[in-house]
Amino acid sequence: MTLTEKQKNLLQWIVKEVRAGNLKEDSIWYIRNLTDYGWVDYKGSDSWPPFTFATFDILEEYGYIKWQQKSQNQYKGTLTGKAYEAVDSNFDEPDRSAIPHLIPLTEVEHLDSELWERLLFSVSAGGDNPKAWDTAIRNATVVLEDRMRKLGNIDNINQKATGNGIVNLIFGSNKSVQKDKLPSEELEAYRDLYSGTMKLFRNRYAHRFIDPKPEEGGEIIVFINLLLKMLDNLDWETKNENT
Prior knowledge:
Elements: H1 5-19, E1 28-32, E2 37-39, H2 53-61, E3 65-70, E4 74-79, H3 81-88, H4 99-102, H5 113-123, H6 130-152, H7 164-171, H8 184-207, H9 214-241
Antiparallel strand pairs: 1-2, 1-4, 3-4
Helix pairs in contact: 5-6, 6-7, 6-8, 6-9, 7-8
């Protein structure tokens, strides 16, 4: 069992006010009656979060507050060290500071422009439609293959330049486009990466209907977008070496 957000907010508020000297750590007293209600001897001006007396019972159950006395309309207790530890650790919540760095990966304006142009029509059919994602991934793998052709200046008529064949023409160990531009281990890694992508995604989606789950479709698109960026970086490095 874990605290709800309202329960966490109340404990965070109490700890904050105790640290500010606005509440007494060993005499946290709340009274509610027909004419008045509030925190006894509260010296602050901050408004407290909404709660019920049942919330006080939950905080005691977790060991955050020890009530010395309580009745139907009043609670008086002492804050425990465990309360400070819970608040300071954000209730042991995982660090989410990486999330802002992940969000751009899924924003349209960060996608490869050609990739998005080819996906726009199909995904406009509906984000929850597996058939739309099937078409989107199929188009994305064609964009990837076409980008490899451009990187290697490979003629479309060349019968070897399809699927895994085009990968070997660019990243193979024998007279490939990138052979003298990359260390052998890195060249092999590129070949394995793009060859695997062709086999797992290009070939599968080219020959039959897969209709993936929308979340899987989105992940594949983002992955292919990364592969396109990697190809563009190789192309940029090659052009700058020749200038």
